[in-house]
Amino acid sequence: MKTTRIVSPTVARARGLLTSLVAVTALGAGFAAFAGNGNAGNPRVIPPHANAFGKSLGEWSAAWWKFGIEHPVDGNPFAVGGCFDLSPHVVGFAGPLATHTLYCTVPAGKALFIAGITIECSSLEPPESGFHGDTAEEQAECARFWADHIENLSIEIDGRSVQNIGAYRVVSPQFAFTAPDPNILGVAGGGAGTGVADGYYVMVPPLPKGLHTTRVRGVLRFSVAEGDPFDLELPTDTTFHITVE
Q1: d(Cα 91, Cα 110) in Å, to the nearest integer?
Q2: Which regions in the chain score pLDDT beneath 50?
Q3: Which one of 20, 71, 160, 183 is separated from 64 by 20 to 30 angstroms, measured CA to CA?
């Protein structure tokens, strides 16, 4: 699949290019072990290759995308920003790629997973969208093309920046979904498809009761002057004020 397809800024803005916060990780004493296991620079997140609730970061990103694609557009947190139950132990957060200040209340004991900027490509989206791939390999190549243009990404948890953020870029396994009509992909009629996502994520243990803040900053940037097929600059600066109770 060619990943040098020209996509207009209007199409890209309308697409599900997201900055997001998702929850995921193991509870209890395991978190202390993660924090002390070669992850001293990031005491509030677990190592990028660790599993949580039996899933890797990539597998959790697939579950997160599946939720967003299959959820109706009306009230979809991918479109309007917000938090949602991703599993009994996980609260997911999402917001469109832009500047937002959002608020969420999370029950104590729920885990958080913060996604920086993440891109998805699928078999359902038409080739002219720039987000199409028929096979898992084509979908991964397409998502990688977009994710390779993420710049200046930072993720903060209560004012502390995650170090070595590049280590937290992951690719999801291929996942299946059935999109409603209408859907956040903008595909008329919806339908069944498969997809692959590529982006940045960190897993955070349950936070103590009280007020907390997470912040994601970065930009998705393309430049014809630098050899890209089109010009596009979509900055994001999303802050979630989280109440744990």
Answers
A1: 6
A2: 1-38
A3: 160
